[in-house]
């Protein structure tokens, strides 16, 4: 048996009002620096929307930290935003960066932190194979959605929004944050639709971590715990979005999912989701959920192009959500999306046969697809997507 290691160095602070301890964590990672300079990287106006702007500044400034805020505009963590942010970080010599927001704000913060101590544009690292020689500026991530898992992963999604639009991933062991503060009160005011869509991202990540060729015994434990927690609490949050206990459960499920796929990466579902998001403006979690049930069926088949253990692992995934077979599990996922008032067919999000060809042309991210248990070909992907049309 090949020895597989599990590695995750992020210090996790989880719980209601855990954000109130932010100053302590910041102090820990800037301890010898007097009046350390902190940069908060966040989505535009998010701190005010959450009502934490003054609170967080007060907490940090009363302990002598000098705090500045970098507000990121738009949905994507783009090359342009990251390069501008990296130049700011290099010029101002910040001692620590705090990323607060959803995946794109945390990914932007992660890239700014690593580029703060590594020269040049992010393009060099994404497209020209330049190595990240140095560790970044210490980073603390604070998620405001329960979904992405970026707070505990070593990579960041980066979007080239230039002429040749494309999704990249910058990944390196040096990119892990020092700490993650997961406070369910920050998710409390997240609109219901956003809550379930980001939760579906976590759900997909947990399932993909479990069926990934790259799984290990520890990622399995996190993934199999995450799957039922997220599945049941997604239905609950839809009925009662202000219930803090359900928010807490979902945040915990999302953390477990993040810890699982931080070591396995994702598979075909995520790979195919990126062109769906980029070209059809479908939010990331929904873009994953749209094909999840069909990939569940695809990966559960016993064929010569599937790894031997896959059918058994797919049965365990089905068990975890209370289904008696992968067929039943696929139907339950589709039913869940209908209950959550989400589309389940591609035409509902504006994708036609021509759109499917675009997705096929761009949906094979090598780093993701190679970990799918069953080999995916263009023809097989076409068949899957046509079933969903
Ligand atoms: Fe994701």
UniProtKB/TrEMBL annotation:
InterPro entries assigned to the protein according to its UniProt record, in alphabetical order: ADH_Fe/GldA, ADH_Fe_C, ADH_Fe_CS, Alcohol_dehydrogenase_Fe
Location of the Fe-containing alcohol dehydrogenase-like C-terminal domain: 196-387
A Pfam short name: ADH_Fe_C
Coiled-coil zones: none
Alcohol dehydrogenase iron-type/glycerol dehydrogenase GldA domain location: 9-184
Keywords: NAD, Oxidoreductase
EC number(s) recorded for this UniProt protein: 1.1.1.1
Gene Ontology molecular function, alphabetical: alcohol dehydrogenase (NAD+) activity; metal ion binding
PROSITE patterns according to UniProt: ADH_IRON_1 (PS00913)
Family statement drawn from the similarity comment of this UniProt entry: Belongs to the iron-containing alcohol dehydrogenase family.
Protein name stated in the entry: Iron-containing alcohol dehydrogenase
Origin species: Promethearchaeum syntrophicum
